[in-house]
Amino acid sequence: MGKNATYLYNEFNVDKDDPQWKQLKKAFDTDAKEAYNVFKKSKGTTDRATSIIRYGSYQKGNTNTITFGSHLDHNYRVLLFHDPADSYWRTCYALVWYESRDDSKKLHGYMYRIYSRDPQMVGKEKQPTTISMLNDGSMIQYDKDTGLSTVVQSGNAAGENGSIKSSIDFLSRFNILRSMYMEKIEQSDSAASLTYCTSVVNNLLSLCKQHAALLDANEKMACRNILSSMQQACTDIGRREMISLAKSYLK
């Protein structure tokens, strides 16, 4: 599903009295207290209630659905949780099982984990946050959702009037940008975070291209190693190529 959703599915056969199976069912019942939406249906229930889970990009022709509750001889537990790191995303956990048709002492079942944007939040996503570097060396974070600008680094934080005049100035700016990138990329894969990270990478690229001559061989090698670790943590091909280009200026 890529960046729009993660869909995991497991099929299983288990003895009815298996302790791990009982523990799994108990965990679903316990975690239901924390879910914002719960669907529970036992076999033999004659009502037509179902739980339809949507996932994907939600653009025309790119929305997927899975329906729980349509089989009379199945048992269902479906839990929905908001992502605490990004309220625009949610996780669906579902457990489905029924008595084996070949052995009444065994159960056949499926477990699902679907991570996707919350369809109720589509169209309400936050606007991207960008990072800009001013002529005096200041770094400004601009949140398009609130219209607020925040000084991430003042001009005096790296050299006189924010200029990059020494290796110390370079490394100070480099490490701040690297920390900003790693902190954001570990939070979520939302569009706002991706735009933020791209902005930081662009500033790193500019820094390496314009001021690499200030570094000695050991300092360049250290920065290349750091950029390599950032590259490994990055799944976006555009940012990976920009990081690769930044490394090329440090040879």
Q: What structural class do helix, strand and pairing data support? A: alpha+beta
Helix content: 25-40%
The major pleated sheet works out as: 5 strands, antiparallel
Distance separating the two termini: 38 Å
Radius of gyration computed on alpha carbons: 25 Å
> What is the number of helical segments per DSSP (H or I, 4+ residues)?
5
Q: What is the general shape?
A: elongated
Q: Beta-strand percentage?
A: 25-35%
Low-confidence stretches: 154-161
Order of helices and strands: EHEEEEEEEEEHHHH
Mean pLDDT score: 81
| Record field, number of beta strands | 10
Strand order of the largest sheet: 1-7-6-5-2
Task: Itemize the secondary structure elements and their pairings.
Elements: E1 5-15, H1 19-31, E2 37-41, E3 51-56, E4 63-68, E5 75-83, E6 86-99, E7 106-117, E8 129-133, E9 139-143, E10 148-153, H2 167-185, H3 191-211, H4 217-232, H5 237-248
Antiparallel strand pairs: 1-7, 2-5, 3-4, 5-6, 6-7, 8-9, 9-10
Structure in words:
The chain is of the alpha+beta class. The chain contains five helices and ten strands, in the order E-H-E-E-E-E-E-E-E-E-E-H-H-H-H. It has helices spanning about 20-30, 165-185, 190-210, 215-230, 235-250; strands spanning about 5-15, 35-40, 50-55, 65-70, 75-85, 85-100, 105-115, 130-135, 140-145, 150-155. Strands 1-7-6-5-2 form a five-stranded antiparallel sheet, with helices on one face. A three-stranded antiparallel sheet has the order 8-9-10. A two-stranded antiparallel sheet has the order 3-4. A hairpin with a 4-residue loop joins strand 9 (about 140-145) and strand 10. Helix 2 (about 165-185) runs antiparallel to helix 3, helix 2 (about 165-185) runs parallel beside helix 4 and helix 3 runs parallel beside helix 5 (about 235-250). The protein is elongated. Mean pLDDT is about 80; it is low at about 155-160.
